[in-house]
C-alpha cells in the first residue's frame, strides 16, 4: 500500500487540538496526563483508533486530508477520550457512560460513535452478493473468506445463504 504524507501544517493542527483537549481534561480531572503519540497509519474506512496500552492515537491520513477541520474537531477528541477513559477508569465499555461523560462534559464535543465522512477514496473493492430478499455488499476481506471456504454469510432478514452475483 502506498504511503500518504500528511502536510506538516495539518500535523501541527492535529497536535494543537490534541494538546488543547488534553489540557481541558487535566484541568477538569485535576490530573496530569502524558501526551499520547500520534501516528498516521490507520487504514481502510476507520478514521482513527486508540491503542490503549501503547498510549497512541492512530489516524487515517487520507480521511484527515479530505476532511481536515471536521476530522480534527471530531476524531481527535474521540480517540483521546478513549485513552483518557482507560487511564482514569481502566477497561470499560468503549463508548460507555465514562467515554460519553469525557466527550460531552470534559472535552465539550458531541459523543458520536462513528464518523460520517465520505469513504469512497479509502473503501476497498466491494462484491455484490444476494439472498432471496435483497442484495448485500461484502468487502474484499469477506469475499476472500467465502472463496477460501472459511466463512459463509447469511441474510439477517430471511436467513438465506448469500450467493455471489456475477459482474455484468
UniProtKB/TrEMBL annotation:
Cofactor descriptive note: Binds 1 zinc ion.
| Cofactor requirement | Zn(2+)
**UniProt binding sites for Zn(2+):** 78, 82
Arranged from A to Z, the UniProt key words for this protein are: Cytoplasm, Metal-binding, Zinc
In its keyword annotation, does this UniProt entry include Metal-binding?
Answer: yes
What biological-process GO terms show up in the record? response to stress
Q: What is this protein called?
A: Protein SprT
Q: Which organism is it from?
A: Xenorhabdus khoisanae
Name of the gene this protein is made from: sprT
Amino acid at each position: 500500500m502506498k504511503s500518504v504524507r500528511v502536510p506538516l501544517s495539518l500535523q501541527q493542527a492535529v497536535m494543537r487540538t490534541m494538546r488543547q483537549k488534553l489540557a481541558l481534561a487535566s484541568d477538569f480531572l485535576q490530573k496530569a496526563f502524558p501526551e499520547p503519540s500520534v501516528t498516521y497509519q490507520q487504514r481502510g474506512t476507520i478514521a482513527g483508533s486508540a491503542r490503549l496500552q501503547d498510549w497512541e492515537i492512530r489516524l487515517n491520513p487520507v480521511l484527515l486530508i479530505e476532511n481536515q477541520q471536521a476530522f480534527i474537531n471530531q476524531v481527535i477528541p474521540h480517540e483521546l477520550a478513549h485513552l483518557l477513559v482507560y487511564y482514569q477508569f481502566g477497561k470499560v465499555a468503549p463508548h460507555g457512560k465514562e467515554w460519553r461523560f469525557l466527550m460531552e462534559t470534559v472535552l465539550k464535543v458531541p459523543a458520536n460513535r462513528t464518523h460520517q465522512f465520505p469513504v469512497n477514496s479509502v473503501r476497498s473493492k466491494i462484491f455484490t452478493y444476494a439472498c432471496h430478499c435483497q442484495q448485500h455488499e461484502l468487502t474484499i476481506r469477506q469475499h476472500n473468506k467465502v472463496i477460501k471456504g472459511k466463512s459463509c454469510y447469511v441474510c439477517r432478514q430471511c436467513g438465506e445463504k448469500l450467493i455471489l452475483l456475477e459482474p455484468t
